[in-house]
Fold each of these.
Amino acid sequence: MTLQITGLAVRYGPVTALDRLDLTVATGELFVLLGGSGSGKTTLLRAIAGFVRPAEGRILLDGTDLAPLPPHRRPVNTMFQSYALFPHMTVAGNIGFGMRRRGASRAAIAARVAEMLTLVRLEGYAQRRPYQLSGGQQQRVALARSLAPNPRLLLLDEPLSALDRGLRSDTRGELVRLQRSLGTSFILVTHDQEEALTMADRLGVMQDGRLAQIGTPAEVYERPATRFVAEFLGAANILPGTVQADGSVDLPQLGVQVRTGRPATPGRILLALRPERLVVGDAGTPNRLSGVLAEQAYAGGTLTSTVRLADGTLIRTSQALRDGFGSVRLAIGGPVTLGWQPEACILLPPE
Amino acid sequence: MRAGRTFVLAVPWAWLLLFLAAPLAIVTLIAVAEPADGVPPYRLTWTLDNLRLVATDPLYRNALGLSLKVAAVSTLACLLAGYPMALAIARAPARWRETLLLAVMLPFWTGFLMRINAWIGLLRDDGWINTLLAWLGIGRLPLLYTDAAMYVGIVYTYLPFLVLPLYARLSRLDPELEHAAADLGAPPWRVFLRIILPLSLPGVWAGCALVFIPAVGEYVIPELLGGPQAQLVGRVLWGEFFQNRDWPTAASVAVLLLVVLLAVPALLVRALRR
């Protein structure tokens, strides 16, 4: 299964929901679409499923253009955010619904339903009605129903958003294991960056109907292409600067030179620094900034410190509390040094 | 607080007692009374003769059977015409929906008898429809005072009562369910049969009951549009009451009709539960 999307545009009247978007998803891949509300991620999913008619562009599934096919003829299934379980059917009726397409026999449907119930660990629930199930069980029925017809590509629209926190992280791992064992290609839509980073083989960050960046979670997190991506996926402190001829970055308003440890073209840039890559206190790192501790917030496992620089810029840092809170507690208003390694520098194009 | 609540509840109870229970009791009393010459034309007693007569005499039984048949056919016709209407309104763009609903209810702005008289104007031998048919060279047809005219009148009158509850139900269906069914490979006709239709059944039953029940006892439409052969139970009742001045028999017909009307939905519910 290869999904190839080229120049896909969807417009609702004057509103552009998808703006000539390109995307390729490979066989067996778990691709995550990450974006805020209104970024077009759900529209993209609906265009692939066939519920939204594109104004331009092509969607090819293994070389076949999906455009002329209505939703019920596409070899693609969707797991809906609301689950959309049929309230008047049993769990078995729901899961078996998609099997009629091939005119499967009753026995074949029953066998497949039983297989899917085992897969999502809901044996014994076949005759229940959706309203008799908990949220997590409904989620698994929805998943089983969308997987039962053995789709070439499964589209998942915020599949975990309706679950509560603890269940969500368990289900995350379960979903990934399931995807690996089945080998079905998944496209999963989410607005949750942690979900995207932990689950994706590759992910795409959506912005205003376009894919701002596509890559593996590490690629996108470590080397974001734009300020938007840097700030959407994880947090980032942004400082305007200029790359010098020797490759170092000059921060003129702070009067500081920063070593980046890699060549860069001279010119104006934005320097992005991840909070967790900054060290509070003098750790002997090559790059250093001094400021005043403005705020500290204790969050159990981590400590968030906000440091005010000479020019008034606030820098957020986040440190793992390896040795307990006492080791890093500092006086608010006192002078502090921020340090980081050259490799922690992210250079972004100016806006 | 408690007194206020009692008062608020007392109003509907008083209403029901005064306008439902009391008339029912009076009708039942007259049904078991004896006919008599005088004013009023009955003598209070306790006899089941009248009820036995209307339950066994072919005249009343045939009238009741015909009424049930006419009501059933009319209800089915209303359903066949009204379901697509209700679905179309529920699926229309939001800005059109209110206008379309208004169009369904618009006939209620005119008096019922006026509208039936308008149908007479359309259907009679020198009416608009026959004039058109003659002009087209098809020739005039006897339309008025036929069963067809009666059915047209009943379906026309009761259609909104079916469309409105059905629309209310259909408009509340989650469109995502239809998407899910299509996504799982169901073509549109199967989405309708497996998802929309079963989920709309409560609206279908409500609408059908609102058509069927008043249609069984319908008097005006068969009287004004139907032929003399359409001896429905409403006409028979009217005849007993005003022409024969036999109040006990008329009251017995009314009681019989009520029993049948209560029994039909009860049996239907039992059949559906099974």
Amino acid sequence: MTSVADAPPDATADVVAAGPVKPRRRWNLTLVIGAGLVGLVVLTALVSFLWTPYDPTRVDPSQTLLSPGGDHWLGTDHFGRDIVSQLLVGARTTLFVGVVAVAIAAAVGVPLGLLAATGHRWLSEPVMRALDIVFAFPAILLAIILAAGFGASTLTGMIAIGVANVPVFGRLTRAGAMQVLQSDFVLAARSYGRRGVVLMVRYVLPNIAALLIVQASVSFAHAVLAEAALSYLGYGTPPPTPTWGRMLQEAQNYFVVQPMLAVWPGLAIALSVLGFNLMGDGLRDALDPRLRGR
Amino acid sequence: MTGVSGLVVEDLVVKVHDIQAVKGVSFEIGRGRRMGLIGESGCGKSLTALALMGLLPHGVTASGRVLLNGRNLLDLSDKQMCAVRGNDIAMVFQEPMTALNPLMRVGNQVAESLRLHKGMNRAAASARAVELLERVQLPEPDRTARKYPHQLSGGQRQRVVLAIALACDPAVLVADEPTTALDVTVQAEMLRLMDTLVREEGASLLLITHDLPVVASICEELLVMYGGSIVEHGDVATVFDSPRHPYTAGLRASTVLESTDGSGRLSTIPGRVPSLGSFPTGCVYRNRCPRADDVCGTVPLLTAPPGSTQRAACHHPIESDQPLGSGKASA
């Protein structure tokens, strides 16, 4: 009682305790490096529309398996096709497949995850079990089935990779959303009348965005690798359109003669995957006001 | 009671998986009155608050009647209740650290309720939000409105929570331990501010706390809750000065207000609050009560002696100036 009665009448005492607001750093190194690598891949893909040193599909029997240097900067493959030109054009497929596959996965998985998180048992259980079934189904098998039905193409590859990633986003969204739904501020939002879809989209989704962004960057990296694997197996983009995955596949037959053939597409895949991972990490930090400036 | 009735709660029962956590609680808060609800943790205080708000978690159900403006809130659909929440009945939460959306600027959070219930457009709601932040005495309200919760101190955040609760001039404000998480100096200001605003708005206040001085400082009436039942009800000063229920007396003896034996030590109530479902039958307090006997095996009624409004649910109430623990002989 005494503490209440004797408290200083200064209404701003707690204001002082807030301390100065830290100056915000506008960028972080992870984001810059990640965005730089991703930008490089994007730029490569864009440049390929305007210019390539050679026609990437032109076969030249007199110039096969050249080492890097000379007229062909990174050499040629067993058909005499220019490696640089193939890498440039291959970036298009890689980016396209990655972006579309992740978009499919997120566009289907996130709403399903939110739906499952709302807690209605008759809604949540079927959704989660359906996701389990998809999760248990190998992506490669799905791609083979689609390829058998519709013919192998970039599109079937993208769909297969996208669908295979739906459960990843669904589960992550559900787990994250359930945690956020338990929090006081959601209860508070409900206490002033927020509900339903708006509550999910404006309160829950932003608070799991960091999770989803990181997952998107990881999934993108996986999609690039999966696309490479599908091309390698012959269930992705059909020849002669160059993809990094198939370049890698074709390189293995000539590994002893010209090992550099495998290095270039491998390096391209590794750098773009690294780029997307770093960018996801950086974006997470940059988008969270709590982590800014740390 | 007063001509204009505020909130009327009749026989509110809250069940947690078929175990009664709140056992038929009834009380009435007149319009503009300030009611305190105290009790130890686990007494059903917060469940009562959430039941009033219609925000009970899954698996927890409420029955009885909660009347506000002639409507039973427990009968309303979820959608109807959403129109009531924030507009007619609002809540201040215990933890200002977690009660705000970390990713939304505080001004927008205050504006949310206005846009939702008053149909204001973005600009009007934002302008009103700044006014509200000024009313809760936040410095530089227009700048504060653009800050995120993590940039504010605990006291400042609790002011924002209060601004949100008061945004639509609710008839009833439920404050669940609004000062527990704050520093003592900040607590006093927060209470004074809440007191002022509730008076200005003419809103009814239900202040839930386990802190007796807090209740004493701003409430008019007091409900003492134990084991999901109301054990004592009356005017704050009267209940404080001469508690009739041994539990209230025990609570009072364990605060700084009283130093029973002159040693300067705080006294304690023996034992601890039983877990849900393991309260004794009959009087819920009898396993910890110094005055308990065989009669206490039956449930005592909440009654007042003739000529008094101070009701207590006890078979052996303490009559004035009688030391605790010696009631049996006279009862």
Amino acid sequence: MSVQATKYSGIFEVWKGSKKLLLTKNLTPGRSFFREYLFQDNEEYREWDPKRSKIAAAVVKKINILGLREGDKVLYLGAAHGYTASFVSDIVKEKGFVYCLDFAPRVVRDLYFVCEERKNMAPLLADASKPELYKSRIEMVDIIVQDIAQKLQVEILFKNLQFLKPRGYILLSVKARSIDVTRKPAQLFKEVEEKLLTKLKVLDKKDLSPLEKDHMLFVCQGK
Amino acid sequence: MDLREKNLELTKQSLKDSFTRDILVIQTIHSVDELSSIINKLVANMRERYGYFAPSLSREEDVQKFIESIFKEKQDDLGVVFRKEDLESIQELAHELNNVRALQKKQEIYLENLMKELCPKLLETAGTHIGARLIDLAGSLKHLAEIPSSTIQVLGAERALFRHLKTGAKAPKFGVIFAHSSISGAEEKGKAARRIAGKISIAVKQDYFSQ
């Protein structure tokens, strides 16, 4: 069985036994950063585990649109060790760029090593809720990806919209548990969507269960 | 300079700047806990093995006495005959175990010295183990100084706390501070926990804000 392209730009799939694997073309051939499986088929691909990545989970759940294209500049808020960010960097390729931001020093240490080897990634150790502190270190981007487990997730996104080009895309993964553990996720997601609609267009949303519990991925576009 | 290189350079610097010495407290208490678990497992394993040769000695509860008895090579009525190499192998293990126990003591002394330097008041009120665990659970000395004493009281009892918030079950009265001698020995443990948490809170604030 050979590698098939999916409807999402830069994302491929292949059948391995009875399992379907998600793949991206490896930008750094021969190098695997998170012990992910490397698949050879003329070119080298990296396996993208939907259990470790919310964007991959949304692809498995057949989200309508992702907005990620080759050559895009991306601002990734909450990049952590850089797992998902490294696949985003595979998708946008050499012409694109991923600014990876996280504010926990320990994970940025791991992220640093990934960014050092991948020429289209850069790390930032900064607080996403204080954009004025890293304003000078990034440029305008086509896509904002946000995956932070904070209470004020949506407000933080709004503060960062200043970096988004007109009609740029937003991939926002909302964790209901970190907004309020005592309330029902469905209710919280509804409130988040209402808040998003005041400033953005919501193109699609997907509940990520069972791959990720109480998470919803919103795909939005700037007006 | 292009943005990528600038960011790599700046991140490298801020990673270095983000280090504080309380991280060493957290890492050292992890090492101490890990050594404890290694020692417990090895002792249990040696009791099993030595038990064939000297069943009554391997029931000795004091670990130090048990290890010493291994070197005395005294066979029990109930025990079977061990060859020389059988005993020697156990003794080799016991010897190394003694080293590990000494290592753990040294790590604990280092931890205590570290805390004397960083948080002397916390060390005085909570002791080495509880103090270090509290810093670990809070994430940093800074955060421990910022959270209210009611949170300090239930640090380490997160499962019970969130069960309480979600389902309305009874609230936990103490977390890791339960190991404090004036709580575990107290008549009314909830009250004692609240007061100790208050004192710890004051101590940490003094430590952190006087630096």
Amino acid sequence: MRERITFVQKEGDSIEPSALKVDGSGLSGPEVKAVREDRLTFALDELPAELKALLEGVNQLHIRWVSPIAYEAVSPLLARLPPGFHLFYTPGSDTSINPCPLLNKAFGTVSCSSPAESFTTLPTDRFTHSTTHQFYQPLDSLSAFTQFAKSQLCPPSSPRSCGTRLNSLTKASQLDISYDAISHTLRLTSLWPYGPQSLSATLLSPSIRTEVGIISTANPKTLEPHEIGISGLLTVLGQSTAPSPTLFSFPSRHRDAASSFTSKFLSPTGLHPTLQLSISSPSPPSKSPNPSTCRLHGYFTLPKTIFPDRHQLSDPLFLSSKNLSSVRYITPNIDLEAPEYVTPTWGSSLLLELSPPPSQGSQGSGDSKGEEWTAQIPLHLRYLSPSLTGYRTAEVPYPALFWACTAEEGTKFPTNPFEKDKVGYDGLFGERTVFWHLTPRPGDGTNGRLMNEVKVPVLDLTKADWVNALTGVVVALGFGWVVVKLLGVAFAGGGKKVDKQKKTQ
Amino acid sequence: MTKPSATGQPRPPGASVSPTPSLLTTFFDRPLPLYLSAALFRLIFLLYGLWQDANSPVKYTDIDYLVFTDAARFVSQGQSPMSERHTATPLSSPGSSSQPPTSGKVLFAIADLVAGWLLEKVLARSMDGPRARKFAAIWLLNPMVATISTRGSSEGLLGVLVMALLWAVLERRVTLAGLLLGFGVHFKIYPFIYAPAIIWWMDNERMNPNKTKPTKPPQSTSITTRIINFITPARIQLALISLATFSGLNIAMYLIYGPPFLQHTYLHHVTRIDHRHNFSPYNTQLYLSSSLPHVSSSSPPTFQIEKLAFLPQLLLSTILIPLVLAKKSLPTAMLAQTFAFVTFNKVCTSQYFLWYMVLLPLYLPQSNFLKNKRFGLAALVLWVVSQGLWLQQGFELEFLGKSTFLPGLWLASLGFFGVNCWILGVIIGDVGSQ
């Protein structure tokens, strides 16, 4: 087991080594504004039996949870996903292994029954690094997972700090859990949003190597355009007696585009709501070394309540009228008829290339209001189960919006210490693609959440008492009337008389 | 029996139209003006559709047509057409990849015209050419029919199949009728309802009018002789040929496409829920009952009426109507069967109306609706208004997001059902008073 704790300050912020106290059991210092990232790495043998048994039969399992509460990303932790619970999964040789029961137990309300029923399959022919299956569902908080983690990791004999540390997970903005059969290690990474953090870290146990970093982005002159520079202080708890300054750089696939967007449903929504993205700038990121290769993309994970229709999204004229350019990926075989309550798969993912209008202003991609533009994504609601009010609410997460730019030939992106991979869309692009992310901004009346709500009309159960009976009566009456007319014709005379009477009237 | 020639030119045996020459009568005097205008009509619709598709983000072409042409492309590439939406036999996906997507629509439009031509031939058996063409025009110049086929709906193919079937039967071409029936059922299942009517109609007196002995069978025939009399060579021939065609096509499709063919062509209709709002009176109940197991607060489901929905539907369309009407008027019996099948079906959309619309011109000449124009107009208004009420509720639901399922949409569908039942009753009564 290893641990790494990183405090990421904003570019230009730093802390004097003398402000930190380092002793045999930990590190402490003043409160700073930073993002905190904790990463725990477990060997398979160190895991609880149930989890170990599951992972032994799995090839790849990656959980990416993102809080619906808007947060500020700080370089280099810039990768973004739609908020919610994402799972990217590749089964091992025994495909009957089912991770769902454990997922339900660990995260509470994850409604998956089995990979075959609930997961969608991903294309594996394009790029070998992607997983074969995907699952997603909106998930507001990690409170269930916190309880589960405590029950697994903090036995009654453990110190109180164990539970306290895990409790803080409820305030995290991101959680990544990654396992693959090659490394045979499980990596658990949690991230707390930018804000006041007290610089403190304690050694969990002398046997656990614990590294603490306090870093911020730096721009040394030797930095290549596709690289991010880092400077800061590193301390290995229990080994070093003082933090050591460090300066390093690495190529990064996730960058900040320095523009933003909001997303909302246009009203009236009806059963075919349109999601509108309002994007602050039509220009590619000015910092990109090769802006001409950049294309704006939206990656959507749509829960099963709502779906895109690939036939509707296939016409160039229709797409361009919505400021869209093309569908780059859409989950295959989306059922276009089935109601939500009998749809076993989680939903669908959609990668759209957007088509910004030509930029009028300067090349700068500032948040100037004049350059804001919109794109519309036509979607369709499934029927939801009846309710006592005649309506239900469907929640759709904000998409991840990014400019995908191609780095120059020969550029390599080896795994960096802050790399976040398996984010869904990365598997749909080539190895040289750099993602420049737009910051999602919550819209008005969303309580700071990056979720769009849509009111779905459903059958009102309070008015449904007579449906069964009265439908039966009306059908019986209609049937009876037709049979009477038939009898009239069969036993000739009756029918004729009636008709003649009618005629004379 | 005199058979009028194909074009229905000479010697009208039936009633003739008023002799005063007018533009309208000269229009129907010869076939060319009618068919030319029907073809032109569709060509204009087709070209307009192409123009709108190319220039407007709002498409003229039905979205299902894209599914259809996708499936056709798969077939032409030697792959399976079974996709998420394609729920029909692979044979309903014509064309090849080299053809532009318009080819399907052209095919449907031509099918419309052929259906109209067959309609005229059937009508001309009992009336003169101009009058037959006048009634065929109800189909040929019907904007709804032209729109549906040029938007790319394959329902129009059904029209030509059914009309060809009826024509073959009336012409005593039993082999052809068997082939068409078997193919029709494979193509879209529902034409199986015509089998009992045709079989019942095909008695010995009709099939061999000159051979029939003048001595009518005595009143008191035993059941066994009746059964023996029922089994005629023509009936056996029709049954065997249609069954062979139907199973032959199914086996071929199964060999090519395997089990997915069964799922998409047939089993789909058994397992589907059909909950999305449509004209059927069962619709709200289907939504309710399909969702009840998934609503935690609901009481355990009691007896559900839609489980018996097939009973009135099949009783009327495959037994009662054929028995009572087929021997009196086969075309009207088939119209009434189709009308009953669509009205009592668990799903009912406006495309299904095309199924009976093709048979309507065969009934109208003897109908009360036409004899009493006011009565006919009132029926038409009732049908349109009750449909309009439903559409208004449907619009509020679909586009404004109002929960109109109950009571609005439900009552509107029951109202529309009531009007349809009444019209069906009038059609049946008209056969009796002929």
